[in-house]
């Protein structure tokens, strides 16, 4: 089954001859949830900036727990595992 020309244009961000920058639905959800006072779980794709991430997920508490559970820092930190990787960025 072939998709229609209109649906291809919409998927590619073009509508009525204009191109608009693509919006990441995961990022849109993060922004809306923060606006409403909520937080998206870290199970799916995450696109928080590092400052925004640590403002939500208490960095001081995380570092205290990591110092006990991973004292030699063998594993990546939570931001790197859940956000940087989702954005295709290495360590």
Features:
91 residues; mainly alpha; 5 helices; 2 strands; 4% strand
Round the Cα radius of gyration to an integer and report it.
18 Å
**Biggest beta sheet summary:** 2 strands, antiparallel
Number of E strands: 2
Main sheet: strand order = 1-2
Indicate the multimeric state. single chain
Give the proportion of residues in helices: 40-55%
Structural class: mainly alpha
Q: Give the CA-CA distance, first to last residue.
A: 41 Å
SSE order, one letter for each helix or strand: HEEHHHH
Number of helical stretches of at least 4 residues: 5
- Residue ranges: pLDDT <50 for 5 or more in a row? none
Summarize model confidence as the mean pLDDT. Answer: 81
Question: What general form does the structure show?
Answer: elongated
How much β-strand is present in the residues?
under 5%
Topology:
Elements: H1 5-11, E1 14-15, E2 18-19, H2 25-35, H3 50-56, H4 59-69, H5 78-84
Antiparallel strand pairs: 1-2
Describe the protein in words.
- This protein is mostly helical and 91 residues long.
- It has a domain at 24-84.
- Helix content is 47%, strand content 4%.
- Strands 1-2 form a two-stranded antiparallel ribbon.
Compact overview of the structure:
By secondary structure, this protein is mainly alpha-helical. It contains five helices and two strands, in the order αββαααα.
């Amino acid at each position: 089954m072939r998709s229609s020309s209109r649906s291809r244009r919409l998927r590619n961000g073009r509508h009525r001859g204009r191109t608009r920058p693509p919006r990441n639905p995961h990022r849109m959800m993060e922004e809306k949830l923060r606006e409403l006072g909520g937080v998206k779980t870290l199970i799916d794709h995450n696109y928080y900036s590092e400052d925004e991430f640590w403002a939500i997920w208490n960095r001081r508490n995380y570092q205290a727990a990591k110092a006990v559970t991973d004292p030699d820092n063998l594993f990546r930190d939570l931001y790197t595992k859940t956000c940087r990787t989702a954005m295709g960025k290495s360590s």
